[in-house]
Design goal:
Elements (H helix, E strand, L loop, with lengths): L55 H4 L14 E4 H7 L5 E2 L1 H6 L10 E4 L11 E4 L1 E2 L1 H9 L3 E4 L3
Parallel strand pairs: 1-3, 2-4, 3-5, 4-6
Length: 150
């Protein structure tokens, strides 16, 4: 006998038998109360229902815009490119995946300009999006920027 073979002893919970007379404690209305839709068969309450009042989610003010299918980018900072890919001539999603800077080369990539010190990597960058600062730093270093379609 191992610890992995030990099972927790649980008692089987008996079903509540309703409608079996007043002496059972669950007779007459069978635990459903008096009148109303909760007493009737086939009614379903949705989660936000607050008996007769305006539902909570309708009271909360709605602001802004939420896209139905938002575009999620994998973010790469120039700092990490500087550390892991100093002398690479081309930097694209495939090379970023090999350097373990992104997890999936098929997902769109955005390069941001967060960096400490100077950026001197002269390379051709291929990504789906670039921040203004990143684009400026790459061009000042002598590199070029190429936007891919998502």
């Amino acid at each position: 006998m191992n610890l992995s073979q030990i099972r927790i002893a649980r008692k089987k919970k008996k079903n509540k038998r309703v409608g079996r007379g007043t002496g059972s404690g669950h007779g007459k209305t069978s635990g459903r109360g008096h009148k109303g839709s909760g007493q009737r068969v086939g009614t379903k309450f949705y989660v936000g229902a607050i008996g007769g009042n305006v539902p909570f989610f309708r009271k909360i003010p709605k602001r802004g815009f939420t896209s139905v299918n938002p575009m999620e980018y994998q973010i790469v900072n120039l700092e990490s490119v500087k550390k892991k890919m100093k002398d690479a001539p081309q930097i694209n999603p495939q090379t970023l995946k090999k350097a373990q800077l992104i997890s999936d080369e098929k997902m769109p990539v955005k390069i941001l300009g967060r960096i400490k010190g100077d950026f001197k990597t002269k390379a051709t960058f291929s990504a789906h999006r670039f921040s203004k600062k990143a684009e400026e730093l790459i061009k000042n270093a002598g590199g070029s920027v190429e936007c891919l379609k998502p």
